[in-house]
Amino acid sequence: MRYSTIPLAQSIVLHCKAKGIQNVVISPGSRNAPLTIGFSEDPFFKCFSIVDERCAAFFALGIAQYLQKPVALVCTSGSALLNYYPAVAEAFYSNIPLVVISADRPSYKIDIGDGQTIRQDDVFQRHIGCSVNLRQDVSHATEEIKKYAPYSISESTIENTQQKIQLFNDDGLNTAINLAYAQRAPVHINAPFEEPLYDFVDRDTVKPGLVFNKDSDGFPGVDIGNLSEIWKTARHKMVLVGVSHPNSIDQKLLDILANDPSVVVFTETTSNLHHPNFFSSIDTIIAPVEKLDQKNNLFEQLRPEILLTFGGLIVSKKIKAFLRQYRAKQHWHIDEIKAYDTFFSLSHHVKMNPNRFLKTVLSQDTGGNAETDYRGYWLNIKENFKLRRTEYIKQIGFSDLLAFHYISKTVPRSYQLHLANSSTVRYAQLFNWDASIKMFCNRGTSGIDGSTSTAIGASIFSKEPTLLITGDLSFFYDSNALWNDYVRPDFRILLINNGGGGIFRILPGQEDTPNFETYFETVQNLEAEHLCNLYGFEHTKVASAIELKRELKPFYKQSDKPKLLEICTPRLLNNKILLSYFDFLSSDFINH
Asked: Domain ends where: 169, 201, 233?
C-alpha cells in the first residue's frame, strides 16, 4: 500500500479506517491528492469517483441512508466544497451521517489572491453537527512554512511543534467522527495541505491517538411509567409517523397499535409501516373533510388527546394544518436525539429508540378504561373514501393521477423505491403500495435537487433492484447524476414528464398567465431520450394509459442496461383531475 508523506493525510485515513468508515466518495482534484492516495490505495475502503461534487454528495447520502452508517466525502479546495451544501443540509435535517473532508490551502495563502482558495473553515456552520478545522503539519514542507508562516512553529523544535499539532488534529478527528456516529449528523473536517501533494511512502508513519464512543442506553428524559398511565386511560390517541427506515419497528408492536380501538395510526409512504387498520393516505382523509359544512364537528372528533410521533419529517401539509388548529392536549415525540415542535404543542421529548419506547409502553395493560370507537369511526370513513377513489379512477382520462394508479399496482415486490420531490411524493401518498417495497425520499429539506443521485447511491448495496419515480424538473435538474460508472443494469427510472413544475398548478395562487408559466411552472419541452443515449439507458416513451400498461410489463424485466420509461401527461389537465378528486370524495360523504 501507499501512504501520503503528509502526516495529516495519514491521520485522517487511519481515523476513518479505525472507526469503520469504509465507503468514500471522491471528487477529482489536486489539493486532495494526499487523501485520494491514502483512501484509494487501502483495500479496506470502497472508493467511488464522482466528478460533480453536488451529485457526489447526494450519492454518498444515498449510501449512508441505505446502510445507516457514515460515508466519507473527499473534495479539493475552493468552490468544490460549496457544491456539497444541498446534501449536507438534507443530511442535517434527515439525521444522515456524512463525513465531509475538504482539502484546503495553507492559511497563509487564503485571501491573498491565490487561485482556488476560499474561506473554507466553518462554511456549513448553520447546518452541520460539528466543524473541525485541522492544523497544517510543520514536519512537511518545512522550508515553505519557515518562509511564509514562521509563527506556526510555536515550540523550540519542529518535532515538538509537530507533536502538539498531532494531538490537536487527533482530538478534532475523534470529536467529529464520533459525533457523526452518536448524533447521526453530518460533520465537516477541513484539512490544510502544502505542496508537494503527490509524494508517498510504502508504510504509515503516524500513530494516531484514537478515542471511541462509549455505549449508551439512552436517557428517556421523562417518567415513562407516568406516560404509560396517561396512555392507558386516553380515549383518543393519534400516532403519526414520518420518514422511517424499513423494519425499524417490531411488527408485533404495530399490530397492538392497529387493534387498539382508541388509536388512529397515520402513516406516509416514507414511514415504511403497514397494517390494514393504518391510515396510509392522510390527505385522502383530511382533504375531503375540509370541503364539508360539518368539517369543524368532524375535526373535533378527530382531534387527539395524545399525539404520539416518531420518525422524520412529515410530507402531508393537510395533517400539519389540522394538528396546528386542532391541537392535541399532549404531543410526545420519540427520538433519541431531537424533537421538532412541528404542531406547536410539543409537551414531551422522549429520548428513546421508538421501538424500545413502544415495547415499554405497550407491554403493559393498555386497554384500561378507554372505552371508545375512535379508530372504528374513522375506519368507516376511510373505507367509504376508498370506494369513491375506485369510482373516480374509472372515469378519469390519462393524467398524473391515473399514471400513479397503474404504477402503484405494478412495482415488483421487495423493490427499493425512491421518490423525488415535489409532486411525485405527494401523488405517491394517495395510493397503497405493497408492504414489501422499501420507500425513500429526501424529506429533510424537500428539495428537487439530488433525488436521482441519492437513488443511484442507495442502489449500490441493495440486494434488490432500485426504482426512482421522478418528475421532469427534478430529473433534468440532477441529470449529472447519471455521469458515473456505478449505475446498475437493474436500476429503473419512471419519469413523469408533464412539461413543467406541475406542483405549482396544484398550489393556491396559480393562474394561467405567461409570467406564471415562465417563472413558477417553468414550462419546458425537453425529453429524456438524448440523455438516455448519452449515458447508456434504454429509453421508452408513452403518452396514454394503454401504452403505459403495455410498457410497464417489460420495464421491470432483467436487462443489460438500466431503463428509463418516460410518461408524458397533459400539463393543463393534471391539476384539474387531482383537485376534482378531493371534491368527488367529499361529494358523497356519509353523514356520520
From this structure: 201
